[in-house]
Amino acid sequence: MRVLLYLFWLGFFALVIAGAGAFWFSQEIGQAASNLAEPVAYEVKSGATGRSVAADLEEKELIVNALAFRLLLTYYEKKQNASLRAGHFLVDPKKDIKGVLDDLLHGDTLTRKATIPEGYVKRQVAEALEKQDIVTAQEFGQALQEADLGWKFPSDLEGYLFPSTYSFPYDCTGPQAVKQMTDQFRQVVEPMMEKYKATAPLGLRDTVILASLVEREAQVPSERPLIAGVYINRINKGMKLECDATVQFALGKQKAVLLYSDLEISSPYNTYRYKGLPPGPICSPGAASLEAAFNPKKSDYLFYVRDDIKNDGSHRFGRDFREHEANIRKYQR
């Protein structure tokens, strides 16, 4: 009889303790994770354990109860086969511990967005990435020098850093940024290479160079294939390309109006002095300029001049120098 009574009270107290524990647990995971007001970017490091993450969150005052966090994580690991992932996550202290843990287990990892416009040179790309808090210009420049990407990439990646809007890793490195941009270049260019493999007038490297000239010269989208065709015509006739944008690249600066003295600069990029394409791209061309270089529009035009009358970035095209001179007199101011 005494044994039965002992077992009864033992079970009773066990139930009381279990109930108290369950009540405590439900209370802890149901209240705000901490007293902080604003969401915080938090990094779960590779190889981190539940114990270390719980302790770190509590130390950073992102949660108030590391034990409750660990117990809930253990439950999820066993019942849902869930586990912590490495990466940066947004932790909102106004959520309860369950909400914080759900974000770490199932939320999207944080990224940083950055936009690289068409027509940038490598230096401008590096500066834009630093300005948008992706990676320092120095680290990106170092990564460019050390990059060994294979495929058809030249050692000098000028022209191959594809202009686009990117979602970079939250804690991005120089090599990661270089790889992401060159991977995007391949993703855009490889279908074009396949599509125009039988008709493209130039190989890949020269096509990228031509596209970079088109990118800097064309302002009206519909004119890109026509301008590319003008340069192909001049190459086929052995003429100098006489592209202002290549001179600006040689000068290392943009000028609204080039002087005759600028056209004498001794540089292989000066297409007023040397025939054919320059030795490398003069900027990073976008998809439209690349497409135009792969598939130039056929015409008899050998010249073009900016139309200052319309003043919308469009050009007037000429078949010979006489027509070109007439266009200059009529449309240039």
Overall geometry comes to: elongated
Termini Cα gap: 115 Å
What's the mean pLDDT score? Answer: 85
Helix fraction, binned, reads 40-55%
- Assign the structural class, choosing from mainly alpha, mainly beta, alpha/beta, alpha+beta, or little secondary structure: mainly alpha
Number of strands: 6
Oligomer: single chain
Largest sheet: number of strands, sense, barrel closure: 2 strands, antiparallel
- Report strand %: 5-15%
Radius of gyration: 31 Å
- Output the helix-strand order: HEHHEHEHHEHHHHHEEH
Q: State the strand order across the main sheet.
A: 1-2
Tally of DSSP helical segments: 12
Q: pLDDT under 50 segments (min length 5)?
A: 3-29
- Tally of structural domains: 3
Task: Give a verbal description of the structure.
With 333 residues, this protein is mainly α. The chain has three domains: 31-106, Dna Ligase, domain 1 (2-Layer Sandwich), CATH 3.30.1490; 111-193, no CATH class; 200-299, no CATH class. Helices cover 48% and strands 8% of the residues. The chain contains twelve helices and six strands. The strands form three sheets. Strands 1-2 form a two-stranded antiparallel sheet. A hairpin with an 8-residue loop joins strand 5 and strand 6 (315-318). Helix 8 packs across helix 9 (224-236) and helix 8 packs across helix 11 (287-294). The termini are far apart. Mean pLDDT is 85; it is low at 3-29.
